[in-house]
From TrEMBL:
It comes from the Bacteria. It comes from Acrocarpospora corrugata. This is SAM-dependent methyltransferase. Coiled coil: none annotated. Pfam families: Methyltransf_19. SUPFAM superfamilies: S-adenosyl-L-methionine-dependent methyltransferases. InterPro entries: SAM-dependent_MTases_sf, SAM_dep_MeTrfase_SAV2177_type.
Amino acid sequence: MTDREQAPSWVINPHVPSVARMYDYYLGGKDNFAADREAAEQVLSIMPYVREFTRDNRAFLSRSVRLIADAGVRQFLDIGSGLPTRENVHQVAQQSAPDSRVVYVDNDPIVLAHGRALLAENPLTTVVQADLREPKAILDHPEVAARIDFGQPVAVLLLAVLHFVPDDDEAASIVARLRERLAPGSYLVISHGHAGRVSKEDEILVTSTYKATKTGNLTPRTADQILAYFEGLQLLKPGLVPVEAWRPEYEDVKPNWDRAGFLGGVGHLT
């Protein structure tokens, strides 16, 4: 940890659910505690398909990173990266282009511990402690500066993270401040919680479960609100869609707009 890097804003508490560890549980991982599993099961009791759309979101990440790496981008900044799992950004990007540089950003101490252990022998990839709500601190972080040249194209990834910023104006400001540092040829990848046509009662039950976590409020947004994050960018086809329908491997995938889940899109700065 560098002198300029702050200590994590909270310590690992196995008795308080963590969003990152709940997500790990949805994906079938083992880096979670009883409190995480209990909270995740509460969500699953209301929306049993959460595991499915969480895996769909992970697959969307892989497809978008592979497309961007194949397009020639060699820098990736993954903000709110969560716990390492299969097909992490650096693995997908470096499979396409071994010289790809990747910086993971998270503020959960367990993510930092696992990420640093995994990446100890990968000089092109690192994980730093910083908060999504402080984009300038992320962009100016010395370890980010050591690997990311913002004068060249970079892919900024914001997957399943902006919905934990409850204030609409703040969320929009975060994206705008990140976007304004991007060079032509850069990409912005976003997935975001979307309530679909789930009942208001069920939405409240799910969001109340997330309020018990350190991250706090979960705020689903409409397609129009999420689309606004791509202002000034060329939105790649098929646009903003349920993540399972974003350039799927199989042609017969049909988007389910009624079900709660993640909407995803990829913007290109031309």
